[in-house]
Design goal:
heterotrimer; A mainly alpha (about 350); B mainly alpha (about 290); C alpha/beta (about 230); A: about 350 residues; mainly alpha; two-stranded antiparallel sheet; B: about 290 residues; ABC transporter involved in vitamin B12 uptake, BtuC; two-stranded antiparallel ribbon; 11 helices; globular
């Protein structure tokens, strides 16, 4: 017995997109062969931002939870990594998923408090939470207090046989992590949860009256985002080899840039953060020496995009050309005997 | 007696926090907008006060007379030119645009004034204080600032409930489209509300500049203090906002006394506690 | 007819892609009471919203006092002398009865209507002037809504379903006030589901069906059959 229809996710455009993705992935995985130390570092940074922006996009663009406090989990991930390696002798790469799990647990009571606030007040509330994490971390003298701490040489060298191998290892873990994050987001959006999120985003009241447990869906997304963000944070600080409260919980680095990337690339579309990160790094390579002027321009560009092209660069491309990089559409195909298309 | 002094100091700085909060609450009440750049605008006002005193040689407290109209004009222009376009059902545009604005203001100030710490000199009044009992001292400046805060909040209450403009604000807040049908031009009303908010911000900014060292980066913390005062006090009540500011100030003062590094943390924890046990705030206004 | 007060010419109205009005034409002479009837969704409220400026139209689709007002925003149209009593009253919840009336007068047009005159017209409001407007009964709220619109001294008052949700005796009381409003110098357009009431109060009737004028004529000359056919579609 079959239903008279099935749901198709791919389109011609997305098949091309997936092929492009696969080729790019192979090229990037081989980067240690063709790239130098600086290239690998730059790529790792790009992966981190793609992941962070995609996660923020999931939270804000899909679940409607606009947080300006995700730096809380970036820093939390970093500190858990440093704590578990320095204080508890854990292997650094094992500490990455551990950081994710602990952050997910912490996210539960945080969500309990934050969900009492709505809209703009929720946003500032998340900022307060990040501030609390920052202040608490500067009180932990075992991890360097206010000035922070470096990862001891012993732990660093224990990771791999040589410095070069260690850097290759961290690079591949970073690439794996961003691919896993993107894949998880795509799978989530293709699932029932994804459908629920789109419904909530379009009309929360209608979603509720259709039996969707809005609060639980939002909670799941919030916790999953914290999980992913903390792992990325752990990896970021593993690569930096040093952590301090101000760098770990920096609003500029982990929220401002992320938000600008997502807005410019396109909110509410999975491809947006990817495009946005590319644009962001292109701008940075060309304009970085301008210092605070660069941030100022970034802010101005983000405002302009928000007002005049709210769907971002990718949104414009979709409207113009109907492109689709990832198979995320839902098209109903009736079974062969009923209809041919 | 030490504790009495601590509490008094906390109460008095609570007045400043209440002023931070009043401008924020006003905007939210009239147009459901939370201005993430609010704290940075307070700092902007401080720098404008700095430029005013440098060029005109005025005492900072008199500079208020110059800074208030400037900030009010900025507020009117900002709302009419930029922020009015972001208003609507979606919560994302105003949030992101004011966030972008915050980054722009901070970095513009950084470019113009560098990251050096500044302070406005108000003369002898800064250290003047008087005794009101055994070992209990009150600073003249903090007291003045507290009295001004009460006057500002009282003034806002009066404006909202006893003037035609206040009526217009409340009507527009209740039902935008019907307010238009009564002859109220929303774009103008919202711009007036923002002008008023920034006028309050101007006063707060001048007092901040005299009271503490300031630099371009301290804006977000002021936003957070204002926000916490609003939530602790309860949405929709100006006097509640004053109470919220006082509770925040006292919490910080107590925290600082226990351990200097705990000052900010104590305030945040008080906020989170209220959020946990009484999310509607201590003095919420029950709407009809 | 001498120069009409309101001249609506071939008005189209859209909500996004959805067209709600198709070439509607309507006239109101000074001192006249015009009723607009029709089934739900026929476009009656849309018509009033266009006239009041809440929906923007083609500039010369609406002429008021000889001036084109079709593209004017609502707050400007009130200044010209058109006031709307919205469907469902829509009083300002955080304002008292008196404050609601005062807001109506904020536009400052000269004329016979002021607080004292409104309280003469609706004495039960005077006793409750400082009460929150939403704590009044439906009929009293309707009076506040009418009073609020009158405070702007309109030459043309638009009443959108003022009998909605009110008991018949209250409806009669409210409608009983309309003649004095006309005497003071306002013309009226009343949108009504209650056809009997509409025909009693009006000089001239328009019947809308699915966004078009299906029938028009003076109240006395229209037959029940004609109205039924126009209302429901033959």
């Amino acid at each position: 017995m079959s239903a008279g229809f099935h749901v198709e996710h791919a389109s011609r455009s997305s098949r091309i997109g997936m092929a492009v993705f696969a080729i790019a992935l192979l090229a990037l995985a081989a980067a240690p062969a063709w790239g130098g130390r600086d290239d690998l570092r730059l790529l790792s940074e790009i992966y981190a931002y793609v992941a962070l922006a995609s996660l923020w996009n999931l939270l804000a663009g899909y679940a409607g939870l606009v947080s300006v406090g995700q730096q809380a989990y970036v820093g939390l991930g970093g500190y858990i990594l440093f704590a578990s390696t320095i204080l508890f002798g854990m292997h650094p790469l094992v500490a990455v998923p551990v950081a994710g799990v602990i952050a997910a647990v912490v996210a539960l009571p945080v969500a309990g408090l934050m969900f009492r606030l709505r809209g703009h007040y929720f946003a500032i509330g998340t900022w307060v939470v990040a501030e609390v994490f920052r202040l608490l971390s500067s009180q932990i003298s075992a991890l360097g207090g206010g000035s922070g701490i470096s990862l001891p040489a012993g732990i660093v060298t224990s990771m791999a046989s040589s410095r070069q191998m260690r850097e290759f290892l961290i690079y591949w873990v970073a690439l794996t992590l961003v691919v896993v994050v993107l894949a998880a987001i795509v799978l989530l959006l293709r699932s029932r949860y994804g459908l629920a999120l789109t419904a909530i985003r379009d009309n929360e009241l209608a979603a509720r009256s259709n039996g969707i447990d809005v609060t639980r869906t939002k909670l799941v997304v919030y916790v999953l985002t914290a999980f992913g963000t903390a792992m990325v944070g752990a990896l970021i600080f593993l690569q930096k080899l040093r952590i301090s409260p101000d760098t770990a919980f920096s609003v500029n680095d982990w929220t401002a840039f992320v938000i600008f990337i997502t807005v410019i690339g396109g909110i509410g579309r999975v491809e947006g953060p990817i495009i946005g990160t590319v644009v962001f790094f292109l701008l940075r390579q060309t304009l970085a020496d301008l210092g605070s002027l660069y941030l100022l321009m970034l802010g101005a560009v983000a405002i302009a995009v928000m007002l005049f092209a709210p769907k971002g660069i990718w949104g414009l491309l979709v409207e113009r050309f109907g492109w689709q990089l990832l198979p995320l559409e839902r098209r109903l195909r009736l079974s062969a005997d009923a209809r041919t298309t | 007696m030490e504790w009495v002094n601590i509490i008094i100091q906390g109460v008095l700085i609570g007045g400043l926090y209440a002023m931070f909060a009043a401008g924020l609450a006003l905007i939210f009440g009239v147009m459901r907008l939370v201005n993430i750049a609010h704290g940075d605008l307070i700092v902007l006002a401080a720098y404008i006060a700095l430029m005013t005193t440098d060029t005109l040689g005025l005492n900072p407290l008199l500079a208020i007379v110059v800074v208030v109209p400037i900030m009010a004009a900025i507020g009117y222009g900002l709302q009419r030119g930029l922020l009015n376009r972001t208003l609507g059902d979606d919560v994302l545009p105003p949030l992101l645009v004011t966030f972008g604005l915050s980054v722009i203001i901070q970095n513009a100030l950084l470019e113009l004034f560098t990251a050096d710490s500044r302070r406005l000199k108000a003369g002898a009044i800064e250290v003047a204080s008087f005794q009101i009992g055994e070992g209990v001292w009150i600073g003249v400046l903090p007291l003045l600032q507290f009295v001004v805060a009460i006057a500002v909040i009282g003034g806002l209450q009066l404006l909202f409930y006893r003037t035609p403009l206040g009526r217009a604000f409340r009507a527009t807040s209740d039902d935008q489209s019907v307010a238009q049908l009564m002859g109220l031009d929303n774009r103008h009303i919202f711009a007036l509300a923002m002008a008023l908010s920034l006028a309050v911000v101007a006063v707060a900014g001048v007092f901040l500049a005299v009271r503490t060292n300031f630099d371009p980066a301290i804006g977000p913390a002021r936003l957070i203090f204002g926000f916490e005062a609003v939530i602790i006090g309860g949405l929709g009540s100006m006097w509640g906002t004053l109470a919220g500011g006082i509770i925040l100030g006292v919490s910080q003062a107590i925290g600082a006394q226990i351990n200097p590094g705990w000052q900010l943390l104590a305030g945040h924890l008080a906020f989170l506690l209220i959020l946990a046990v009484r999310p509607e705030g201590l003095f919420p206004k029950v709407q009809g | 007819m001498p120069e009409p007060l309101l001249d609506v010419r071939a008005l189209d109205a859209f909500y996004g892609d959805f067209q709600a009005l198709f070439g509607v034409s309507l006239r109101v002479a000074p001192g006249e009471v015009v009723a607009v009837i029709g089934a739900n969704g026929a476009g009656k409220s849309t018509l009033l919203n266009c006239i009041a400026g809440a929906i923007r139209s083609r500039r010369d689709a609406i002429l008021f006092d000889g001036e084109p007002t079709g593209d004017q925003p609502a707050h400007a149209v009130v200044g010209r002398g058109i006031a709307l009593v919205p469907e469902g009253r829509r009083l300002f919840a955080s304002l008292s009865v008196e404050e609601n009336l005062l807001i109506g007068g904020q536009v400052g047009r000269p004329g016979p209507w002021n607080l004292a005159r409104i309280y003469d017209l609706f004495p039960m409001l005077a006793e409750r002037r400082h009460v929150p407007s939403t704590s009044l009964s439906g009929g009293q709220q309707q009076m506040v809504a009418i009073g609020r619109a009158l405070m702007s001294n309109p030459k043309l008052l638009l009443c959108d379903e003022i009998s909605l949700g009110l008991a018949p005796i209250v409806v009669r009381e409210v409608y009983g006030r309309l003649p004095s409003i006309v005497t003071e110098g306002s013309s009226l357009i009343i949108v009504e589901q209650d056809i009997v009431q509409a025909l009693k109060a009006a000089n001239h009737v328009y019947c809308l069906q699915e966004g078009r004028v299906a029938l028009t004529g003076s109240a006395g000359t229209l037959t029940r059959e004609a109205i039924s056919a126009a209302y429901f579609g033959a």
